[in-house]
């Protein structure tokens, strides 16, 4: 059923978008402070949030794949990687944020783990 696949992704995407928007406005002070006081808290947050978002999108897309040359990629992983790359780079121009290649790497690691888990659970 279409709603069953897309609803979890849609709700979580709204949560992630709200988190990004709140961070861009500098409105998540208490939460940001708490996350930053945890060892690797920010990086773990990136990995977990973006990894889970990716897994849910792969589920919503029913594991659809795309070919880029000879490379076969999960469409959900590709979409999230492109969007998160743009989002992280955009932080260069947002005063309350700062671009961080380690944050971007944590996003990519979360995406890769989500893709691996999806493929293990849903063999092609």
TrEMBL record:
Name of the featured protein: Trypsin
Domain of life: Bacteria
Segments passing through the bilayer: 46-61, 73-95
Residue span, VanZ-like domain: 27-118
Keyword line: Membrane, Transmembrane, Transmembrane helix
InterPro entries: VanZ-like
